[in-house]
Amino acid sequence: MYGNDIPEQPGTAGLLDEVAAAERDLAGRDHDASADPTAYFDAVIAADGKIEPRDEMPEAYRKGLIRQIAQHAHSEIIGMQPEGNWISRAPSLKRKAILLAKVQDEAGHGLYLYAAAETLGIDRAELYRLLLAGKQKYSSIFNYPTLTWADVGAVGWLVDGAAIVNQVPLCRCSYGPYARAMIRICKEESFHQRQGYEILYTLATGTPEQKAMAQDAVDRWWYPSLAMFGPPDTDSTHSAQSMAWKIKRFSNDDLRQKFVDMTVQQAGVLGLVLPDPGLSWNEERGHWDYTQPDYDELFTVIKGDGPCNRERMAHRQAAWDDGAWVREAAMAYAEKKKVTT
Ligand code: FAQ
């Protein structure tokens, strides 16, 4: 039994079932465009339908989506670095092949998301420019180092696990291209989470040294994973509007709680301890009580002062510079094709 195979609560659907439901929901919806675009937008949102690129939309909705989708896309490609770091040092050929496939998937997720952002009228090169200029963000989590092989397991289990909890509801987001991109991404993230869980399970049931390495990785990744969900609801600037527009479906704190509830059970199966002495089952709430992450640390990392921010951005900048000849060659080829066809 791995990762999300464990149901969250008895009698409730698993995360993959939620993705399947979102897929059916998308297939079943078809709205007629109305003569009044504002009324049409409001009606589609109220009816839980999809806004498509051809539809009129409030400028703040468009800009807010670009902000979130771009940040998400940047996270996927910057997120290739911490695990990419271990491709050449994976402990076996099988592990190396799996990790390669996983890191490659993240590049694919970046591609789907940049493509979704482009439907809102912004160019991918411009989004890249904004990232490199420090004007757009990427997830705080990728500014932490992967110190041992067990970190690859912890990233898969906890970081991808948190990503799934955050992203499954985005399959039901009101903007069609983003929602559709998320369906495929969530299916792939589910594989990623299981591979991380399996790495940790192997280490946790191995030698005492391997188990200690797995525990150390979980100790270091637990709180940064909780912080991925963003600031507490009381300090979240975008949540109210995003939820009214059905971009976000749950608040940061609700998703964080869902992640804790799911992960406590999984840690039990692994035989590893989550590094929170405050974890306890609250019968009245029907949820686990837990210690909040350090939000000052989250904002320090978001502002650029995390352990690896500079390294991550320097690597990204170098990749952009080194790729100049590829972009130039592709443009020259496209021009040549235009002349000859
Ligand atoms: N890091 O008002 P809110 C992955 C910013 S998963 C950095 O609550 P919102 C998979 C926020 O942007 C990771 N910044 O914001 C993978 C805002 O600043 P702004 C990516 C953060 O948007 C695994 C300010 O704080 N997932 O990549 C963070 O309503 C392994 C106030 O916050 C997504 O992007 C943070 N953790 O809620 C890949 C999911 N939290 O923009 C490779 C989609 C908050 O005004 C390997 N995004 N901020 O300057 C979302 O669901 C939302 O955007 C949240 C934030 C929940 C991240």
UniProtKB/TrEMBL annotation:
<dbReference type="InterPro" id="IPR009078">
    <property type="entry name" value="Ferritin-like_SF"/>
</dbReference>
<dbReference type="GO" id="GO:0010124">
    <property type="term" value="P:phenylacetate catabolic process"/>
</dbReference>
<dbReference type="InterPro" id="IPR052703">
    <property type="entry name" value="Aromatic_CoA_ox/epox"/>
</dbReference>
<dbReference type="GO" id="GO:0097266">
    <property type="term" value="F:phenylacetyl-CoA 1,2-epoxidase activity"/>
</dbReference>
<dbReference type="Pfam" id="PF05138">
    <property type="entry name" value="PaaA_PaaC"/>
</dbReference>
<dbReference type="GO" id="GO:0005829">
    <property type="term" value="C:cytosol"/>
</dbReference>
<keyword id="KW-0560">Oxidoreductase</keyword>
<dbReference type="InterPro" id="IPR012347">
    <property type="entry name" value="Ferritin-like"/>
</dbReference>
<dbReference type="InterPro" id="IPR007814">
    <property type="entry name" value="PaaA_PaaC"/>
</dbReference>
<dbReference type="InterPro" id="IPR011881">
    <property type="entry name" value="PaaA"/>
</dbReference>
<protein>
    <submittedName>
        <fullName>Ring-1,2-phenylacetyl-CoA epoxidase subunit PaaA</fullName>
        <ecNumber>1.14.13.149</ecNumber>
    </submittedName>
</protein>
